[in-house]
Amino acid sequence: MTARGIYLDWNATAPLRPTALAAMTSALQEVGNASSVHAFGRRARAWIDQARDEVAALVGGRSALLTFTSGGTEANNLALNSRGTRPLVISAIEHESVLKPARLAGAQVARVGRSGEIDVAHLGYLIDKASESAGRPAFISVMLANNETGVIQPVAEIAHMAKAKGALVHCDATQAVGRVPVDINALGVDYLTISAHKLGGPQGAGALVLAGDLPVEPLVMGGGQERNRRGGTENVAAIAGFGAAAKEAAQLGDVGRIAAMRDALEDRLTQFGLPMTIFGRAAKRLPNTTCFASGTKTAETLVMALDLSGIAISAGSACSSGKVRPSHVISAMGFDAATAGSAIRVSWGWQNEASDIDTFVAAWGRVQRAGLAQRDDAETRISAA
Ligand code: PMP
What we know:
Elements: E1 6-7, H1 18-28, H2 39-58, E2 66-69, H3 72-81, E3 88-91, H4 96-104, E4 108-110, H5 120-134, E5 139-143, H6 155-164, E6 168-172, H7 184-187, E7 191-195, E8 206-210, H8 236-249, H9 255-269, E9 277-278, E10 289-293, H10 299-308, E11 311-312, E12 314-315, H11 328-332, H12 337-341, E13 344-347, H13 354-384
Parallel strand pairs: 1-11, 3-4, 3-5, 5-6, 6-7
Antiparallel strand pairs: 2-8, 7-8, 9-10, 10-13, 12-13
4'-deoxy-4'-aminopyridoxal-5'-phosphate (PMP) binds next to helix 3.
């Protein structure tokens, strides 16, 4: 709870960690272009080098193989742009920053099951089909944790299968990093996307990490920054904040407490006697995320009503510039449009307390009861007419 209300939309963006703010404030107070050879430039370079080590360490990667970008979106675009002439295969629940470039590239799209997990057999089938028709191995892009449902995908299994077919594998780990352990080598993927603002760093910073000597086809060309993988004078303060947040996020903090809040929230929601659907409940999920629908109200109404009570949550993906439309993720899981259109996502983190969940449940209950009362009124009017 803050003076502005209760923030339960951490998958949209997480609060800046105080250590990140401190690093950014210090970096902003200095002058120096990291490409300059003088002492001022070397100090800017030192901020970047330190952050590169901290962010790489967070995912078990090598500093020299990490490219800073303007965020997860750019890192995803950069990974897909590096596929060369390989045919692309993705899953139906990827973030728009993978879906959009993939659609342009004519990608094959693998199904997901009702549990929210990618259908590995279907993905394998599409990899074979795409490789055969293109006459060369494929490039795969799959996310580690879904931003809407929190469902953790079987990425290690997918990477193992895809690499046996000669494919290169990219993983968008944006929502997973800092919430569950993520290690690029344990996952067995070639390219890994991270975004700073989901783990307590600033918005507008991200990274693409490579597992080895792999191709990178730059999207932003200019000076030779980032080993020629991404041109442009670096955003030193944002990168410094990213590094500080990554260092702290590596501790993973109170994951047990955060997961207990999810379990308590879901148990209480099911006690309202409404027909609740909790998406991906049977699958492995992020500890801080729950996505559900009761079908009684549209997600848009719920988001607005809860906002009036000072509670921030989100309808489907918050990344679509304020547009509320049925979630492609929930639809891909095989739910009808009414269910998809009423799905809301609640996500939280280290700043929240168990009492925030109590407040949310009480407010949600009030909104639901108001809806039922309105419906009763309408039914009375209809029967009276
Ligand atoms: N991938 C996923 C799964 C995300 O949730 C997001 C952000 N919503 C992104 C990529 C994009 O990251 P950024 O906001 O840093 O561009």
